[in-house]
Design goal:
binds flavin-adenine dinucleotide, Uridine Diphospho-n-acetylenolpyruvylglucosamine Reductase, domain 2, alpha+beta, four-stranded mixed β-sheet, single chain, 7 helices, Uridine Diphospho-n-acetylenolpyruvylglucosamine Reductase, domain 1, five-stranded antiparallel β-sheet
């Protein structure tokens, strides 16, 4: 590992390299184990070099956007966590070209300034566009798939840059082709429409107000812990099972929104995982419904 570290230091030009870094710092749950290597980068060339080194040395690698849908177990990650910080946003007519590490809130502001509509539902989703594409993030009836024209990525094995169309992204509920491969999204083109600045702003304000009222923003969390059911609303059945407020260690089923598990009081990843299991088992015993995780456990 020491020689790999030296290789990173001597090869990478625009990246920050850390070893044994705690992932709680970079994830919205604010708790997590350590990663052997943590690298943040703003350089496509560096991403390619990192992949080459990882592939050559057989070191597992995972990509991190804003860490708002991930939980690292206490045992940590024996490999490289690569945080993508490419963040350019270019707007030309109705086409928005965004780098993968650009944050939804910042993209949303730029889009509003340019009087383009369609991105409003994304404004309050606390992540990067790369994470949103990977997850096909969505809210209030919209999903990022509705806006994506094409996506550019670095192929994990060849390190070549490729571009695929919306159709090739194979989007479905909280899923895209990037869930089946390890390719690294570097940018995307979004297609929006001209709109009225006032109407766009009103919609963003309305969604923000709704989120503040209904979701537990006061505590670290990773959004909805579980996916929506096919024929049921997961948070509703968790609530009906009497689980709101149920606590294990520092982790709690939010009293504000039963679909969210929160880090109420210095929760360990194990507290959160135990609570997830408890909720799943209780819901199954009481309703016969199987609920599936939306957040990713590393
Ligand atoms: C308070 C709160 C509210 C939320 N509300 C919503 C909501 O309304 N709707 C919703 O869909 N989600 C919601 N989420 C969950 C989360 O914000 C989304 O899933 C978001 O899109 C994740 O983006 P991220 O950049 O944080 O990704 P991360 O959590 O960093 O990563 C998520 C996945 O994407 C992969 N990934 C990240 N970047 C790249 C890249 N460049 N290339 C390839 N793979 C990549 C990661 O490896 C991981 O598999 C919420 C979360 C919180 C904390």
């Amino acid at each position: 590992m020491n020689s790999v570290y030296k290789e990173f230091v001597s090869t990478l030009e625009h990246s920050v390299i850390k070893t044994n870094e705690n992932m709680g710092k970079y994830t919205s749950f604010k708790t997590g184990g350590n990663a052997n290597f943590f690298i943040k980068t703003k350089s496509i060339n560096d991403i390619k070099k990192i992949l080459e080194i990882a592939n050559l040395n057989n070191i597992p690698l995972i990509v991190l956007g804003n860490g708002s849908n991930m939980l690292f177990k206490e045992s940590g990650f024996d490999g490289i966590v690569l945080k993508i910080e490419l963040d350019k946003i270019i707007i030309k007519n109705e086409t928005v070209t965004v780098d993968a590490g650009a944050k939804n809130a910042i993209i949303s502001k730029k889009i509003l300034d340019n009087e383009l509509q369609g991105f409003e539902f994304m404004s309050g989703i606390p992540g990067t566009i790369g994470g949103a594409i990977r997850m096909n993030a969505g809210a209030y009836g919209g999903e990022i798939k509705d806006l994506v024209k094409n996506v550019t990525y670095i192929d994990y094995s060849t390190t070549k840059i490729e571009t695929i169309t919306n159709k090739e992204c194979n989007f479905s509920y909280r899923h895209s082709v990037f869930g089946n491969n390890k390719n690294i999204i570097i940018s995307a083109e979004l297609k929006l429409k001209k709109g009225s600045k006032e109407e766009i702003k009103n919609k963003i304000d309305e969604y923000t107000k709704y989120r503040k009222e209904k979701q537990p923003w006061e505590y670290p969390n990773a959004g909805s812990t579980f996916k929506r059911g096919k024929d049921f609303i997961t948070s509703k059945i968790i609530d009906e099972c009497g689980l709101k407020g149920y606590t294990i260690g520092g982790a709690q089923v939010s009293t504000k929104h039963a679909g969210f598990i929160i880090n109420k009081n210095n929760a360990t990843p194990t507290d959160i995982l135990k609570l997830i299991e408890y909720v799943k088992t209780t819901v199954y015993k009481k309703t016969g419904k199987l609920i599936e995780l939306e957040i990713e456990i590393i």
